[in-house]
Specification:
Elements: E1 8-9, E2 14-16, H1 21-46, H2 50-72, H3 76-97, H4 105-130, H5 141-163, H6 169-189, H7 195-217, H8 221-247, E3 251-252, E4 257-262, E5 277-280, E6 286-292, E7 304-309, E8 316-324, E9 328-336, E10 339-354, E11 369-373, E12 383-387, E13 391-395, E14 398-405, E15 408-421, E16 424-428
Antiparallel strand pairs: 1-4, 2-3, 4-5, 6-10, 7-8, 7-11, 8-10, 9-10, 12-16, 13-14, 14-15, 15-16
């Protein structure tokens, strides 16, 4: 946490640094899962490829041939091939033992080549000596020829030394092992197969036939779709974690303002959507009101309001309705005709923005306020709520109610509006006064909010 409550900040100022080790670990795991999913899809597609078909056919042929050999014994071609392998191994061993014999072909050729190169060096040396007196002898053709002959002689000497070198113990042992392996393979041809070996060979043939059938049929559309869906799911997970990492670099102030709340401490674990800090603009204030559905139709966006603060008695601050949000439903208990029940009271969050003025500088967040809506939808003066069943309409917009005067019902003409609240109707009359009793009946509700109409 890089700031404290009350700190003034500019837009972009770092507020809280977030550790992303756990996110990085999640991303690594998700990337590994994506790699596995892609490989699984690739393997599924390769099952029907030409290469896979050739490999499956080759395995089946090899398995069938091994089974035939076990059941029928070696063919003449197998016996002849095994005999040739033994003969080749023995000849290779003899060549190895005799390779440094002075009369061996390789030794004689190497010796002849060495003598030829010695003669070339002598001739080149003689030609070089003939021009050695010249000042530019180093750049002459004779010097180049002598150098080339010398190099060829050195190579021939190395080849001759290699030709007369006796075989090492390791080379001899390898040659003997080759003979033994060839002899073992030959002897194995005449060893009668056991029942277990034949059964094992049959199992191999069956598996090879099954594998070939699967390759020829290719993967099912359902299996392919599942593999593709798995790739897309893991890919989306990787992209989601990458986006979280980009957003988790740190929390910065969105605007110039003041930190009024820090909801976390160093070391706390947070999740997406948590409120970590609150930054307000000190010169911009707003109020959020919960307005009942009974009155919300009287309010419109842009309507002016008067705001009164407990700390500034007698002073009114102007404001404007900026937002009317979707409703919030609350459950309230009521009593109707002596019975308990439940009614849904819908309220709407209404945001009021305080207008600029000299008094705004004196405001502080958290102050208590009362709001009066003074827009064009305000009820006219002398408006009252009367029971609808106690109103007798005389003409359009004109009605009569019975007002109790000294215990006697007295007719009183009133102006009837089109505004209703459940079982009540709004009427206008300068004669009616607070405390008057109008004949009529309505349901009564416990803990009902105070009627805001009338003056």
């Amino acid at each position: 946490v890089q700031v404290e409550n009350g700190t003034r900040v500019d837009a972009g100022t770092p507020l809280i640094a977030l550790q992303t080790e756990s996110l990085n670990n999640e991303l690594s795991s998700a990337w590994l899962e994506l790699t596995k999913a892609r490989q699984a899809l690739s393997d599924l597609v390769k099952q029907s490829s030409t290469t896979a078909l050739m490999e499956a056919n080759a395995e089946l042929l090899a398995a069938q041939e091994d089974l035939r050999k076990l059941e029928e014994g070696p063919s003449q071609a197998d016996i002849r091939a095994a005999q040739l392998s033994i003969s080749d191994a023995q000849l290779a061993y003899e060549d190895l033992i005799n390779r440094n014999d002075p009369n061996a072909k390789e030794v004689r050729l190497a010796r002849f080549e060495l003598r030829q190169r010695e003669d070339d060096v002598q001739r080149a040396q003689t030609a070089y000596n003939a021009v050695a007196w010249r000042g530019d002898v180093a750049a002459s053709a004779e010097a180049a020829a002598l150098q080339s002959a010398t190099i060829a002689h050195e190579n021939a000497r190395d080849a001759y030394d290699e030709a007369i070198k006796p075989p090492t113990e390791l080379e001899v042992q390898k040659a003997l092992n080759t003979i033994a392996q060839a002899q073992s393979a030959y002897d194995k041809l005449f060893t009668e197969a056991t029942a277990a070996q034949i059964e094992q060979a049959k199992v191999r043939v069956a598996k090879a036939e099954e594998a070939l059938a699967e390759v020829q049929a290719g993967p099912t559309s359902l299996a392919t779709q599942e593999a593709e869906n798995n790739v897309m799911t893991t890919l989306n997970r990787v992209e989601e974690l990458r986006a979280k990492l980009r957003r988790a670099g740190g929390l910065q102030a969105p605007v110039d303002g003041q930190v009024v709340k820090l909801a976390v401490s160093a070391g706390d674990v947070v999740k997406e959507g948590d409120t970590l800090a609150v930054v307000v603009v000190p010169d911009e204030f707003k109020l959020t009101l919960a307005v009942s559905e009974l009155f919300i139709l009287r309010i419109a966006q842009g309507m002016p309001v008067n705001i009164r603060l407990d700390v500034l008695p007698g002073q009114a601050i102007s404001g404007t309705v900026s937002v009317i949000a979707p409703p919030e439903v609350q459950t309230g208990e009521n009593t109707t005709a002596g019975q308990s029940g439940s009614t849904q009271l819908t309220t709407y969050p209404v945001t009021v923005v305080v207008d600029d003025g000299d008094d705004v500088a004196r405001l502080r967040a958290g102050m208590s306020a009362q709001v009066t809506f003074v827009g064009s939808n305000q009820l006219p003066p002398n408006s009252w709520l009367v029971p609808a069943n106690g109103l007798e309409l005389q003409a359009e917009g004109v009605g009569v109610v019975q007002v109790m005067r000294d215990g006697t019902p007295t007719p009183l003409a009133v102006e009837v509006t089109d505004i209703t609240q459940g079982e009540w109707v709004v009427v206008v009359s300068p004669t009616l006064a607070e405390g008057d009793v109008v004949q009529g009946s309505t349901s009564s509700f416990l803990d009902q909010q105070q009627n805001p109409f009338g003056r």
